[in-house]
Amino acid sequence: MDVTIFGSGYVGLVTGVCLAEVGNNVLCVDVDPGKIELLNSGGVPIYEPGLEEMIHRNREAGRLSFTTDAEAGVKHGLFQFIAVGTPPDEDGSADLRYVLAVARSIAEHMDSYRILVDKSTVPVGTADKVANQVRESLSERGADLEFDVVSNPEFLKEGAAIEDFMRPDRIVVGTDNPRTAELLRALYAPFNRSHDRLMLMDVRSAELTKYAANAMLATKISFMNELSNIAEAVGADIEKVRVGIGSDPRIGYQFIYPGCGYGGSCFPKDVRALEQTARSLGYEPQLLHAVEAVNFRQKAVLFDKIQTWFDGDLSGRAFALWGLSFKPNTDDMREASSRVLMEQLWDAGASVQAFDPVATEEARRIYGERPDLTLTTDAMSAAEGADALVILTEWSEFRSPNFDAIRSALKSPVIFDGRNIVDGELARAVGLSYVSIGRAP
Ligand code: UGA
Predict the structure, then answer these.
(1) Which residues catalyse the reaction (predicted)?
(2) Residue of 11, 156, 272, 294 to test ligand 1 pocket, by largest number of atoms within 8 Å of CB
(3) Domain at 211-297: CATH code
(4) pTM for the whole thing?
(5) 217 CA distance to ligand 1 centroid (A)?
(6) I need a labelling partner for 45 at 20 to 30 A (CA). Which of 67, 92, 285, 334 fits?
């Protein structure tokens, strides 16, 4: 089938390449000529395991190409995926400017039936707005053409996006038109194996499903983070509590890991946007507000612990940071806890020596060259001569470090583990102090 994807960002690229992988003819359109040039010369603008090889393979096979030409994109595909960004407005609601611009452009260039597929995370009611925009633009050019707008949210996790797309646990399709539903079912058939994972529903329920999923996951994390602070106060160990509650299948072990807060481009943005949607409709959401507030406070927990440890004086001290990305297997630093901590340390007059397996370039892009930030090419160099080591991202390679080497490298032998990933007993055995989340030091 012929498929066009508007937006060659994270979601658009993964969707495009995976649809090409199963034999579709995919044309990706983006307004950024630099990005398209890079993709056409074999480069990839984002880091995602497996993506580069897959793009290469499908370009070679002639099933995947990239262009800035919107008209060619509209002419190409029966399916017109909208996967452009929806940056948050000042009040936290999603800005639909780019989504509606794509809708307008599709309406301007289409000459026969098209299916517009909302893939970006968009507020409930967006499909209606997209449909109104297309209707309006079609009538401006005096065209009377049929189209449908479908909500088909994505549930990809950064770092595991290809796997999530190729083997989805659900494919949510929101449409009121049974014929369109069948076309989407056919497009997704290669990904819909072993049992039916395609969930057909009305458009608004599909749109809300996406927010509900992310808000629920964020709620689990904030709940555990709140509990971790209570555990510390009462002298309990949150890791024991985690195992204790996770064994109940109604609760489950997933997404109940306490830490220094969730980040990324999705949870913070989506929780705020859902809160804003509810508020704009006259409903004051209390739980969603608390989920975000707990996370905001949790991102400062490590700084508080560090400050207490050093009796409130961090000026002139150097801190080794392991992990800059908001989670492992990505170089994405959007809303990362590392950024909050670095900025707090700088404000307190301290400097940072940071290592991340893939995000150092991104850190350089965000913060530029500055005397109080040193980015190292390996973990132990970051620790060298630092006053303390702070672990911020749960990268596998940080889980089992050489504690002897860390003790020799640090000026004061203490590890602050913001993700509870290293074995505190082993650290203590070599004379290191170990401070973690939700447990007595
Ligand atoms: C999230 C969802 O997991 C995806 O299903 C969804 O499709 C995606 O948002 C999206 O809306 O596009 P992602 O942002 O890639 O995916 O990241 P997650 O793996 O969910 O991690 C989010 C944050 O929560 C990370 O900072 C992680 O360190 C933190 N986390 C996760 C915890 O603190 N504790 C946990 O138990 C799990």
Answers:
(1) 266 (nucleophile)
(2) 156
(3) 1.10.1040.10
(4) 0.93
(5) 8
(6) 92
